[in-house]
Amino acid sequence: MSESPEAVSVNPQVRPVPGSCAVEGSLDPSTAHEHEVPSGPWAGTVTVAVISVLFGTAALTGTALTYLPALLVPSALGLPFGVPPLRLTPLGETTTGSWAVDLIAALVMIAVVWMRLVSSSRLHPTGGVARAFWAGLGATVIGVVAGNLVRIVYLSFVLHEGPGAYLASLVGGALVSAAWGAVVGVAVGVAHAIARQVTVRRASRYRSEPDVVTVGAAMRETQQPQRL
User: Fold this and answer.
1) Which residue ranges does UniProt annotate as crossing the membrane (predicted)?
2) Whole-structure pTM value
């Protein structure tokens, strides 16, 4: 029996594009989640690293303390100032040990912020801009507290504090560090939120583009002729 053109069953989803060698199809909903790319931690991490470098710049911190001397009150109580500073060399009469502790504290802070942002992106890959902002701010608060705790422990040994003074330094240092983290965390949160917004826009543009496959591959995989 001869073949009839009407006897050939063609998948209606395969639609050749006129004047093109491609077939256009809609995005498979089952794979849509693969295009929901979570925003990375790099924008927020770089921001907190830059802030750490700024706190390690003597000219900037000196100018700020000139106009806001009240910021030195925690330091007068034996608590660390600001966020852990990131410097390549000791500053002025700063000892090598103190500089090394500040460097370790800064690296701890940056690492904690990076890990917190990575964790937030994995737990909420489709989270909005507001969630990204609060994730960045919260990560900074935790990071500053963790980094300054390293400095507090070092200062407690240098000052030979007793158990009571040591406990007071830990509690007071954690509170002051949380306040500093909330202040500088606004910038980190904004940077992380902007990165999230850019990621969402890129994902939206990707989803709006149709899937394109070659005609030959589409005909081999989806078109199954049947003989009468």
Assistant:
1) 42-60, 67-86, 98-117, 129-154, 166-195
2) 0.72
